[in-house]
Amino acid sequence: LLKLAEARDRFEAEGIHIVISDAKLITLCRDKRLTSCLFAQYRIRSPEIYERDHLVFPCFTKPYDGSRAIGAKKINTPADLTVDITEDPKMMFTQYIDIENTFSEFTVDMYYDRQGRLKCAIPRERLEVRTGEVSKGATRRNALYKELVEKMAVLEGARGCITAQFFVSKTDSTTYGVEINPRFGGGFPLTYAAGGNYPGWLIQEYIGGQDIPFSDDWENNLIMLRYDAKILVR
Description:
Number of strands: 10
Order of helices and strands: HHHHEEEHEEEEHEEHHE
Largest sheet: 6 strands, antiparallel
Shape: globular
Radius of gyration: 19 Å
Number of domains: 2
């Protein structure tokens, strides 16, 4: 993503439009330590980041530039801190958020136009996740939706689909911003089925030269269930 962003102007000069966010935003999103500061700019809290010598247990560790939940792990006690974890400079340690009992996990597909203005946001509750991607999900028009439409109505440097992850309390309005991926996410087919025609809007905006109006005309509580199919080839 960063290489594409840095080459965007060169492609633009040849009449080729790469729908990619600015390099500055991608840098902030790629490093989850910086993403926390980005959320703070928009008055959205994030799980506290701990210094290695001042950990609070239980805590959560993950690579600051990781993806698909690879290397992510709950640390219950100091005994769980292996050498591989403590000596890996990319591992960061954060406040543990209980998404099994207290919080629900949400991914929000957000469409931003050329000027970084929010045109649509569709929260998806992650009911079941495998290897970092949702296998069961449901669209939810909830307090998180209202908060993002208000606080993230403009995201400087954003273009196209932005996929953001949040933890939302099951009992009150407490919300934590976790990470932002400046690209389409694996669960986007649910957003598309619910009425978020982001590919069509990209065509209208970048090929048709049209302005995209704000849309909240999407289906609430639409559930997507994925499954594996076996294929035999002889």
